[in-house]
Design brief:
Elements (H helix, E strand, L loop, with lengths): L4 H12 L4 H11 L5 H14 L4 H13 L3 H11 L6 H15 L3 H15 L6 H13 L10 H14 L7 H15 L2
Helix pairs in contact: 1-2, 2-3, 3-4, 4-5, 6-7, 7-8, 8-9, 9-10
């Protein structure tokens, strides 16, 4: 495929000034249209060398690899960026990948949520992640389980951790927690 004029012009700008964020953004937009990993990988690799904390660039790279069905590459990128760049949307993409592409078991998903919430749990926009985490742990609690069982204790701990976060929109969780505790104590 012939390189586009925009791609050539932005490549020249990036070569002249590797910190030209605007040129990188256009260059990445151009290579995102390529489905061939050999075309887009070098650009993403170079960009992340200069902007290692640019969550949107990492996200776009993961999305390009997913479209190309290069799941080994996806996992390698996540290993490189998640802890270096604790960005909520990047972590959400990771969870979505675990659920949809890898279809990991509940225990592995729980561990991923715990790692995620350690990294981005206090983010003011993380309420949906806390709600998902609590729902995951609640789903392991069966009716008439002993109050001290591991599943009940894990769900209770998740509720309590969540409601202590300085996060917006967790008010419904308080009511859900109260109702859940009432259900656990029985009639």
């Amino acid at each position: 495929m012939l390189p586009s004029f925009r791609k050539e012009r932005c490549s020249a700008r990036v070569d002249a000034n590797p910190l030209d964020g605007e040129a990188w953004a256009v260059l990445i937009q151009e290579v995102m249209q390529q489905c061939v990993p050999e075309d887009f990988r070098p650009v993403f690799e170079s960009c992340t060398q200069f902007f290692p904390n640019a969550a949107m660039v990492w996200r776009q790279w993961v999305e390009a690899e997913i479209r190309a069905n290069c799941f080994d590459q996806v996992e390698g990128i996540f290993e490189r960026c998640l802890l270096r760049c604790p960005h909520l949307e990047l972590w959400r993409l990771y969870l979505q990948y675990l659920k949809d592409a890898k279809r990991v078991p509940a225990k592995e998903l729980q561990a991923a949520y715990e790692l995620l919430l350690e990294a981005v749990g206090p983010d003011v926009r993380s309420a949906p992640l806390w709600l998902e985490y609590v729902a995951l742990l609640k789903s392991a609690v069966e009716p008439n389980m002993m109050p001290g069982s591991a599943a009940v204790t894990a769900a209770r701990d998740a509720f309590q951790r969540a409601i202590l976060q300085p996060v917006a929109n967790l008010e419904p969780l308080w009511k859900e927690y109260e109702a859940w505790e009432n259900a656990q104590s029985g009639p």
